[in-house]
Design goal:
The protein is built from four helices and no strands. The protein has about 130 residues and is an all-alpha fold. The longest helix has about 35 residues. The radius of gyration is 20 Å and the shape is elongated.
């Protein structure tokens, strides 16, 4: 299973993308929780063969890093847009309504909270992996 996000979606669906990524991370975490002894006693026929020619681990790590960077940039953009809208509204810009300003502010807040939750899951996964016995 690999983590994937559809980059063709709009910024409004960032929260949905982050929820999907969190579900995938939970599934990976649950799969990693299988005791090592059970994995060692599985018949060889059940073990999936390594596929040659597929993306390497370095490519997957790079893609994941790019994905996280893009998510952080999207959250930053939403926060900057919300701050600009709020400042323009405070200065008397009549093209913006209070509802528009509040929506952009809440959109930025929700996307930030979702990003923090993803960060917490990544840190939790890192701690779990670092505590595994080799």
């Amino acid at each position: 299973m690999s983590l994937s996000i559809d980059t063709s979606m709009t910024q409004g669906s960032i929260y949905a993308q982050l929820q999907n990524m969190q579900r995938q991370m939970n599934a990976l975490s649950n799969a990693a929780a299988v005791p090592v002894q059970q994995a060692l006693h599985r018949p060889l026929a059940e073990i999936e063969p390594v596929q040659e020619g597929g993306p390497s681990a370095g490519d997957k790590i790079g893609a994941f890093a790019d994905l996280l960077k893009q998510a952080v940039e999207n959250v930053n953009t939403l926060q900057n847009d919300a701050a600009t809208a709020q400042t323009n509204f405070d200065l008397g810009d009549r093209s913006l309504s209070l509802a528009d300003v509040m929506l952009s502010t809440q959109r930025a807040r929700i996307s930030f909270e979702a990003m923090v939750q993803v960060r917490n899951k990544v840190v939790e996964a890192y701690r779990t992996i670092s505590q595994m016995q080799i």
